[in-house]
Amino acid sequence: CKAGVxxxxxxxxxxxxxxxxxxxxxxxxxxEEGGIGARVYRRKRSKKTKIRKPIKKEKKPSYASWSQLFVxxxxxxxxxxxxxxxxxxxxxxxxxxxxSYSCNLSKPTxxxxxxxxxxxxxxxxxxxxxxxxxxxxxTYKNAPPDGSLNVFSIWGKDSKDWDVSGNGTITYxxxxxxxxxxxxxxxxxxxxKCSIDKDILIVPIPKNxxxxxxxxxxxxxxxxIQTLHDSLMTxxxxxxxxxxxxxxxxxxxLEWYLEGAGFDAYMVESERLNHAWVIVELPDGKVAIExxxxxxxxxxxxxxxxxxxxxxxxxxxxxxxxxxYLDKYSGGNYILPKDFxxxxxxxxxxxxxxxxxxxxxxxxxxxxxxxxxxxFDEKFATIxxxxxxxxxxGGIDWWNVKPFCSQLNWSTSCRIS
Length: 417
Prior knowledge:
The chain has 417 residues and is α+β, with helices and mostly antiparallel strands. It has helices spanning 63-87, 114-118, 209-216, 225-232, 247-260, 317-329, 340-346, 383-390, 404-408, and strands spanning 13-17, 21-30, 35-44, 90-95, 100-106, 122-125, 129-130, 135-153, 159-173, 181-189, 194-202, 265-270, 275-282, 285-289, 356-361, 364-369, 378-380. The strands form four sheets. Strands 4, 5, 6, 7, 8, 9, 10 and 11 form an eight-stranded mixed sheet that branches. Strands 14-13-12-17 form a four-stranded antiparallel sheet. A three-stranded antiparallel sheet has the order 1-2-3, with helices on one face. Helix 3 crosses helix 5 (247-260).
């Protein structure tokens, strides 16, 4: 049972029946004194009401009897607790969620509204991730008078605060030289001693990141496996370097590039392989792309992986090697492979098949089955999501590597892969 104050004239009432009397407990707001209280009325029960005396019989009570006694005990205890609740000076409340809050509510000195008594404050922002120079839209609800709203960096000195009450919206522009990383939006209610906070992330990612891709990358308009293959054949990346341009850099770039071409692209991560690549979702299925295959020292376009079911074989990186082999040696006196399977079985060095991939990374050989490319641990729809996962820009800042840094003018420092 729970009694509460409402805006209606009829107050919430709790009835508790005793052996000889019926008790009526009414929760009220005292407009004159400005406090919350409870009134208790007692009325003698009708003589017609029969109170059965317990039968003296030596036997253990049944399960139903214990249940009835338990229910009566709960009802009576609820009435007592409700009275204590409204007559006590203070009570506590806490909640754990994405926006956490804690309260220590005291009895007000003036008449509170129902919302101020029972509704905790709420706080939200229009996004979770921002760049320096962007504007944060903060919406708050149920903040009483003398509330305080703060925005501050956890690791730096950047901060801003406002006096707030009730419901409202505030906008805050993050400084261009803001401290990067985690920030907190914090709402504190003075008279109730309630607080609620929300974390946001400030990331060092260039402005208009995807708009720039829309401007620079041709969009084929029709997005199929053929147009995906054709788009990938134009991509060439710097040399693979585990320190300056590794698989995560290549994947971040290719996700950006393919989004600019109008494809639904994702950067994915496998902890088991300690590797990153790209997945493109087409109307007829998902296509895995080995992004390191575009690095100039192991250049193997189109990077497309044959699916475990055998799809996309003629668009794969191995099939392109087969076509390149035929083009290179068809004019001479050479024994050419009969077909693609013959090429895979007899013309490639090492133990190779069309479902296993060997790429040289910094002197090491990495072998991956086509099944692994569709069994990843993390999936990022945007560069912001990838940064939120890695918590560092060092593994995805392809725009700081030549030649991209000079072409896009996004970087303050260029490095060579």
